[in-house]
Amino acid sequence: MSNMTCAEARALVQLRMDGPLDAARAVEVERHLGGCAACRAHAEELRALREELRALPTLEFPEEALEDVLQRTVGAEPLERPRWLRTPWLAAAAALLLAALLLPWLAFGPTQAPSRHSDAELFAARQQLEMVLGITGRAIERGGAQGVERALEEEVAGVLGGTGARVTERILEDKVAPPLERLPLLSSTPIQHATSSGDRS
Amino acid sequence: MTNDTYREAVQEIKDRVFSYSARLLGDVEEAKDVTQEALVRLWEHRDSVPDTPRARAWTLRTAHNLSMDRLRQRSARPQAGEDVLDFLPSRLADPEREASGRESLRQIETALGALRDSERAVVLMREVQGLSYDEMAEILELPLGTIKARLHRGRERLRLALRDAGVRP
Question: The whole model's pTM is what?
């Protein structure tokens, strides 16, 4: 048996349950346990106790109590808007996407006779609509704020060009919502140009 | 934390918080109240609790503090064991082991209930909930040495109580 007392050995057995001992102490406590049946039994009881405590069943929180919690919390809230819609600059970014999406319809809506536009203008409008739909779809796939931000940064600015690109950059840099009157920003796009020259036959 | 992440966090932590509170208080009805209160407070502080792991530690700390407040207001020690045992799910499905298993559980729950509150709390956190020492130090706001000393005393008392109860040979 080592020179370690039983009290010292039992304290070390507890410490060993909390984490590894340093090598010297680990050897010494093992040597003590090898020669002391009482401390060996003590260590075994602690090990069994740990297993029994870890095996205690989890109690299930009653369903009616959970319902009450949800009623007092999420149930009391109005329908939640996505986080990016609660953030002004992101809401502005989303509005920009929406404006880009709606542009072809505004330009070639039912109030305007399709015959007033050339085939080339219709083709350009269709191309732009498809492009914006694609951008919007990818933004949604990427999810929330990051998706909208990346769509603006990488794609919408390039499609819109001119004023649209500058406002897009401003939104991304400042993370500030621009005044609403700055959002009809598409004057430099081919579609807007087509609308302004829509008197052509 | 959004509505959805709150719901997910609640689903994941509710039983653990309830189990901890029930065993600490020795009273299932009080544990229900404490768990509900802790989960509602989590909702009220959801902006400062970003994810489920943080929500678990935050809610457990709240439940711990609420439970300790109730224990301090009591004049008598909790009669832990019977109340919790009555609430256990019928998981001991093996009929042959049902009786001995129930009796063993009753002895352990009773021994847990007989510990000092501060010792029972650390034993529950470490050995039943499986928390790390860092998590325990954060929840209890105590030095590691104090936590370990309480844990060692709690284990030793439990060992002796179970031996006295005849659970150990």
Answer: 0.63
